[in-house]
C-alpha cells in the first residue's frame, strides 16, 4: 500500500513538473529575446517527461494512441508540410547566405514539432491541464502587450506622438499587430470562460486596452482581422448556444465600456494624422498590389516556379536582386543594404509568400492545413461546446485567414497551433474512457 502511494506521488510530481515547464515555454515562446529560457524550459519538460515515462509507460502510450487516433490527419498534414520545407531547403536558390536555408528551416520548426510530439505522448485529456495551457498563452500575450504599451503610460509621449506619421515612432509599434492577431482571440474567449469575477474584470479591461493599442499601430489588416474574428466567433457562439446572450451578466456595464472605447477611438482617429492617413490610403496603401504585379511573374517564369527558393528571407532578396539588376526596383523596399541590395519587404499574402519558399507543393499543403484547422476547430466546438476550440477558431480566422490575406506569416505558429488541438481537448479522455 505504501509503495503504491509512493508511486502515485512520483507520477504526479513528474507530470506536474512537465506542466510547469510547458507553461514556462509557452510564456517565453512568443518573446524573441528569451531564447535561453525557451531552451531550458524545453529541456526541463522533456527531462521530466522521460522520468514520467519510466514509471508510467502504459499510460504514456495510451495517451499517444488516443491523441493520434483523433488528430492523425491534421498531424500528418503538418508533418508533410514540414518535410516539403526541409527537402526544398536542401536545394536552395542561393548558397550566398549567412545561414543555410536548411538550418533556418530546422531552427524555426524544431521547437513547435517537438512540442507537438510532447503533447501527443504526455497530454492525457485532463481538463486542468488544458486550462492552464490556455491561460499561459493569455498571460504571455498580456506580458507582450505590456512591453508594447510602454509609451501609453507617458502623457507627454501621448500628446507628441499621436500626430507623427512615422512607423518607427508610433505610440505602439506595428510589429505588435502580428502578435495581436494570433493571441487576442484567446484573451477574448478567456474573459468569457473565466469564472473568477476579479480575473474576468481584469481580462475585460485588457481587451479594451489591447484593442486601443491595435488601433494605434495603424495596421489596417489587423483592424479587419479583429472585426472578422468577432463576426465569426459571434455567429458560431450564438448559432450553437442561443441562450448565451441571456447568460451574460452586467450587460449595462459592458455596453458602457464599449461606448467609452468607441468614443476614445474616434477621438484618437480624428486627432492623429497617422491614423487618418491610414484610412485615406485604403486597403492598398502599402503597395502590396504593386509587389504582386512586379515580383510574382518573376518566379512563375523562372526555373524555380515549381520548387520555390528555399526557406529564408535572404533567398527571397537574392532572387529579387538578381532580377532587379535587369529591370530596376521591384516595388516597396527599405533602401539598400551594405552589399548594395534592396531590402525588399516580404509583404505578399501568406500562401503566396510560402509559394516563394516552398513552391507549389508547400503552398498547397499550407492552404490545406489552414482550411482543415479552421473547419476542425468549428467541428470540435459544435460537438463538445469547448470554448477553447472557439478561441482557436477565432485565432485562425484573424491571423492565418484574414491577416494572412495581406501578410506573410512565419510558419512556427501554425505548427504550434496543431499542438493546441491536442492540448485543448480535455473531452478526449472522458469519451475514450467511456468507449473502452
UniProtKB/TrEMBL annotation:
O-antigen ligase-related domain sequence ranges: 207-323
Record's subcellular location: Membrane
Membrane topology: Multi-pass membrane protein
Record keywords: Ligase, Membrane, Transmembrane, Transmembrane helix
InterPro entries attached to this UniProt entry: O-antigen_ligase-rel_domated, WaaL-like
Entry's transmembrane regions: 12-28, 34-54, 74-93, 105-123, 130-150, 176-194, 201-217, 223-241, 253-270, 355-375, 387-403, 409-426
GO molecular-function term, one example from the UniProt record: ligase activity
Keyword Translocase among UniProt keywords: no
Gene Ontology CC terms, in alphabetical order: membrane
One Pfam family, short name: Wzy_C
Protein name: Membrane protein, putative O-glycosylation ligase
Organism of origin: Campylobacter curvus (strain 525.92)
Amino acid at each position: 500500500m505504501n509503495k503504491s502511494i509512493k508511486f502515485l506521488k512520483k507520477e504526479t510530481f513528474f507530470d506536474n513538473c512537465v506542466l510547469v515547464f510547458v507553461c514556462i515555454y509557452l510564456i517565453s515562446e512568443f518573446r524573441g529575446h528569451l531564447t535561453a529560457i525557451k531552451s531550458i524550459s524545453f529541456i526541463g519538460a522533456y527531462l521530466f517527461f522521460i522520468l514520467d515515462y519510466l514509471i508510467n509507460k502504459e499510460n504514456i502510450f495510451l495517451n499517444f494512441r488516443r491523441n493520434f487516433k483523433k488528430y492523425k490527419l491534421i498531424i500528418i498534414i503538418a508533418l508533410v508540410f514540414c518535410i516539403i520545407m526541409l527537402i526544398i531547403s536542401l536545394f536552395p536558390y542561393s548558397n550566398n547566405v549567412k545561414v543555410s536555408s536548411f538550418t533556418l528551416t530546422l531552427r524555426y520548426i524544431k521547437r513547435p514539432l517537438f512540442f507537438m510530439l510532447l503533447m501527443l505522448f504526455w497530454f492525457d485529456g485532463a481538463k486542468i491541464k488544458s486550462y492552464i495551457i490556455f491561460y499561459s498563452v493569455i498571460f504571455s500575450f498580456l506580458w507582450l502587450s505590456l512591453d508594447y504599451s510602454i509609451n501609453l503610460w507617458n502623457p507627454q509621449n501621448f500628446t507628441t506622438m499621436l500626430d507623427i506619421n512615422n512607423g518607427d515612432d508610433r505610440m505602439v509599434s506595428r510589429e505588435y499587430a502580428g502578435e495581436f492577431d494570433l493571441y487576442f482571440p484567446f484573451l477574448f474567449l478567456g474573459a468569457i470562460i473565466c469564472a473568477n469575477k476579479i480575473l474576468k474584470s481584469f481580462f475585460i479591461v485588457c481587451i479594451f486596452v489591447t484593442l486601443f493599442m491595435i488601433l494605434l499601430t495603424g495596421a489596417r489588416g489587423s483592424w479587419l482581422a479583429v472585426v472578422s474574428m468577432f463576426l465569426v466567433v459571434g455567429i458560431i457562439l450564438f448559432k450553437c448556444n442561443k441562450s448565451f446572450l441571456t447568460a451574460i451578466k452586467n450587460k449595462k456595464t459592458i455596453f458602457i465600456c464599449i461606448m467609452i472605447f468607441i468614443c476614445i477611438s474616434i477621438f484618437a482617429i480624428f486627432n492623429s494624422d497617422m491614423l487618418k492617413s491610414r484610412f485615406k490610403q485604403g486597403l492598398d496603401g502599402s503597395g502590396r498590389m504593386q509587389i504582386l504585379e512586379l515580383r510574382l511573374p518573376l518566379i512563375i517564369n523562372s526555373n524555380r516556379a515549381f520548387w520555390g527558393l528555399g526557406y529564408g528571407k535572404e533567398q527571397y532578396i537574392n532572387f529579387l536582386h538578381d532580377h532587379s539588376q535587369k529591370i530596376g526596383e521591384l516595388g516597396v523596399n527599405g533602401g539598400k543594404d551594405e552589399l548594395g541590395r534592396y531590402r525588399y519587404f516580404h509583404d505578399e499574402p501568406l500562401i503566396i509568400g510560402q509559394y516563394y519558399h516552398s513552391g507549389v507543393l508547400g503552398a498547397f499543403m499550407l492552404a490545406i492545413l489552414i482550411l482543415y484547422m479552421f473547419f476542425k476547430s468549428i467541428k470540435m466546438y459544435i460537438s463538445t461546446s469547448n470554448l477553447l476550440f472557439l478561441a482557436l477558431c477565432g485565432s485562425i480566422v484573424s491571423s492565418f485567414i484574414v491577416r494572412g490575406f495581406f501578410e506573410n506569416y512565419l510558419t512556427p505558429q501554425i505548427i504550434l497551433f496543431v499542438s493546441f488541438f491536442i492540448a485543448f481537448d480535455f473531452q478526449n479522455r472522458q469519451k475514450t474512457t467511456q468507449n473502452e
